[in-house]
Amino acid sequence: MNRKSFFSKGRIVGNLAFLLLTAGLTFGQSDTARVEGTVTDSTGAAIAGATVSLINVGTNSKVEITTNEQGNYVAPLLKVGNYRVEVMAQGFRTNIQTNITLTVSQIAQINAQLDTGDVSDVIEVSSSAPLIETSSATIGQVIEGKQIVDLPINGRNFTQFATLVPGVSRGTSGSNADGSGGNAETFRQGDTGSAAISANGLREQNNNFLLDGIDNNESVVNTIVFFPPIEALQEFRVITSVAPAEFGRGGGAVINAITKSGTNEIHGTVFELLRNSELDARATFAPTKPVFQRNQFGFAFGAPIKKDRTFFFGNYQGLRQNLPKEEGNRVTVPTARMRQGDFGELLDANFTGLGQPITILIQ
Description:
The protein is mainly beta. The protein is built from 4 helices and 21 strands.
């Protein structure tokens, strides 16, 4: 019995470890980028065995790939950011390409042409032009971190920026995904607002939200679960058509967001957004100004723990607000008599507030 118990426990632990490893591999594919290309000489002939090094400028991490017999290479699962690409081969000058920016879920094509010469001779090419994705038919757009932070936004809801992408709108007012009708998003309307997005006229429930490669979908009305603070977002991609098979789930838009991470440089932000009705003008025909006070504040900070090795990033957002009570939004709780099983108070029209009594019929 002891031996059986030992082996059964070992099998359980092994299965759990396998699930954790495979889960990490699965989630890690959608929040990264991929680079592929061909290395040739000045005549256009393929160079086999060339070394392609991709160096992340922010963390100085390096990925090395060797070209095959056709001179092709593929570097998958690259962290989003700025890169320097170095291509070396025996008998050729080293080719260095700088200012290479990789975005989330991007498939970038980076080719290199090597000239004959000594390896110590270097040809450096600097380019800030966006990379053309020739290996994917996906239609969409990346909303970068600078846009997220610098563009004006009400309520600090990052999904509003998705409407900058052609074919994307907020959808039909009053739909299940916009927070009306007492659905899953209603309790969030005071601080974050709606995540209702319609891509190319499809329903708001057809979208797929991801955060750092992890499913971020609420399963009742098919909307978002967690709204990350905009200072914590590095960027997000909105795919409106022909999404790769790795996403699946819905036929609408894919909103794939990634958060920032630490680098070799210390970087951070402190923010506060204040809205106060004391600073607002009174509406022309309104006798008074409704109370509206909202204060959103927080910080984001990243730094290296050990340079080129270990990094950290953290953020915090707080909310304090005072909003006017909506007419007709009424909540009642049982009285002391009702909790004892006596519902006679409902026969008093003044008590019900409806101008008439409420009769309970037991059938």
